[in-house]
Amino acid sequence: MKEDEPSFGVQGVQKTLGHTPVLRQISLSFGPGECVLLLGANGAGKSTLLRLLAGLSHADKGRVLNSFPGRIGFLSHHLFLYGRLTVRENLELFSAISGVVRVEELLSHWGLEPHAHTLVSNLSKGNQARAALARAFIGEPPVLLLDEPSSHLDDRGIQLLVDCVRARVVQASSALSVIATHDIHRLGSLATRVVGLARGQVLADSGPNAPSHELQRVIDLYRESNR
Length: 227
What we know:
The protein has about 230 residues and is an alpha/beta fold. It is built from seven helices and nine strands, in the order E-E-E-H-E-E-H-H-H-E-H-E-H-E-E-H. The longest helix has 17 residues, at about 155-170. The two termini are about 35 Å apart.
């Protein structure tokens, strides 16, 4: 990473939930143009790390670093949508907050036009997932954090997700995407870097712009650690 490039990550971070250590002295730094797949078993610390990076939680020790300009796009297990508002109303609200009006484009891209006037609470799980992804992508955020984004998506939804993330990698050299997932089969092709977590620590890190054999090495280590 060049000295004048923005950086994003954690330094010496520890996090305990209750009496359980979730992150143990984690240090990771990400840069522009990366699409990072964050792998780990349930309880490895992936979701906690993303929440720290998104500013929704605070570390017990260590620092979160973010020198990227602009907002962070975040998708978690919680939709961050208003169930008693329609899909359109939700996107209009979050677009207004972001200062970007892209509602028609978002509805069209994510295949939500037929559901634009449906309350979010009345949507299927798959369409709720699409609406939450549409919200995360509002304003083309320079940093995008996605926690298990393929959950509840059908094949068409997966393709829309892959197309959006791949476009960021190809077209936006200043953008960063970090994706926590178990879905290597369907999302693995997006990775320019793979990081494996185990028991709150870094198991392996391919490094930025890693060759395919190094990406595969980290994936194999992740799979081996879960047998």
